[in-house]
Amino acid sequence: MTDCFTNGLLDVEQAMDKMLSALTPATTESQNIHLEQACGRILSEPVRSEFSVPPFDNSAMDGYALRAADLKQSNTLRLIGKSFAGEPFDGALDAGQTVRIMTGAVIPDGADAVMMQENCQAEGDNITFNSVVKAGDNIRRSGEDIRSGDIVLPRGHKISPVDIGLLASLGIAEVTVYRPLRVALFSSGDELVLPGTPLKQGQIYDSNRAALRAMLEKMDIEVIDLGLIPDDKKHLEEAMQRGAHSADAMISSGGVSVGEADYTKEVLEQLGQVSFWKLAIKPGKPFAFGKVDDCAFFGLPGNPVSALVTFHQLVTPALALLGGQMPQQSLLLSAISSDKLKKRPGRMDLQRGICWQDENGALMVKSSGKQGSGLLTSISKANCFIRLPRESGDIQAGESVQIQLFDGLLSSKS
Ligand code: AMP
Ligand code: MG
């Protein structure tokens, strides 16, 4: 364990590995739900297609179905009928014949190609073709997208709006998913008050719980809001016991710094097994992880930006695992820093940035402003994290840096 720490700070990747290897999915309970309720839920069984998609060979164009080889004899064929979407041609095509066909309509038996209508001239029942086609041209083959029996969505997949369309196209009206994860949430600190009430000297508003709750709800997690817990042992103990009894995971913010006038550490040591780490990440050094009974515990730092960043970077993958979701890699892009960025070696920085494309299409990034761990405007104005490695020093203007675009949890734009 000691090899993970340098200068007493634990690498973020190592913290992640430790957490993920200590966790297993919180639920194996499945529910059958209607497709309309399925967006955002996690499949507990793979979905297979019971038929091929497209289910039949069909036309990719409006035009005429024919036998490609016939055009070698003559460029005029006789029209014998029509095949429209939902109204197939009843019969088969013989040599020298053609059938009017619309996009998506069934290819008539005997035809092996479709000529687009722009290359055809109709005079009564005589259709003249001004171009040639090969067998197979302009035909969408049965099973080209999905073959009968294929797994279309695996177990652990989180259902997106597009997946809803895919499932509907397969005629699936119900899916089997895990029950939603239940997460208990509280804030700790005597200085905190609820938005909407006046502030007394020394008080601040509880912003962490509001933002964390919104993010959890966006993740389709059931939130058990335990409220604002004052810095006293009895209240903390009660909150943690309630959380452990009612939820799969518990998240608190504040009170995890070392040497504070609070009881988080003492209470947790008494109730469960929890490690207090100093992470090599800026913002967000103090972090607690462990278990109270079977409930995973995540103790976030109190500073608002630190709380949101550590939640986003460390807790969301852990919650995904608890909820039965397959692991996902976040995408890192390279961008050119337009300005100098200040950075001290020792911790990985997740600076808040604004990225854009310059006139040549190059991806550029700049700081979103003052970077203090309590300054929520820096994250509110940003659209990405600028991810600067632990040992890196200052970044000069023009240098390439890695960025991570904000996802739908941190931004309403994506
Ligand atoms: P702590 O980790 O409890 O020492 O908190 C660090 C800083 O974050 C202090 O300035 C706290 O007032 C602030 N803080 C703690 N919890 C919250 C919260 N829920 N909302 C906003 N600020 C908080
Ligand atoms: Mg505190």
Automatic annotation (TrEMBL):
NCBIfam families reported for this sequence: Glp_gephyrin, molyb_syn, PRK10680.1
GO molecular function: metal ion binding; molybdopterin molybdotransferase activity
Catalysed transformations (reactions): adenylyl-molybdopterin + molybdate = Mo-molybdopterin + AMP + H(+)
The protein's name: Molybdopterin molybdenumtransferase
Domain MoaB/Mog: 184-321
Pfam families in the cross-refs: MoCF_biosynth, MoeA_C, MoeA_N
EC numbers, comma separated: 2.10.1.1
EC category: transferase
UniProt similarity note: Belongs to the MoeA family.
Annotated keywords: Magnesium, Metal-binding, Molybdenum, Molybdenum cofactor biosynthesis, Transferase
Biological role: Catalyzes the insertion of molybdate into adenylated molybdopterin with the concomitant release of AMP.
GO biological process: Mo-molybdopterin cofactor biosynthetic process
Cofactor names: Mg(2+)
TM spans (from-to): none
Protein species of origin: Lacimicrobium alkaliphilum
Pathway membership, UniProt: Cofactor biosynthesis; molybdopterin biosynthesis
GO terms for cellular component: cytosol
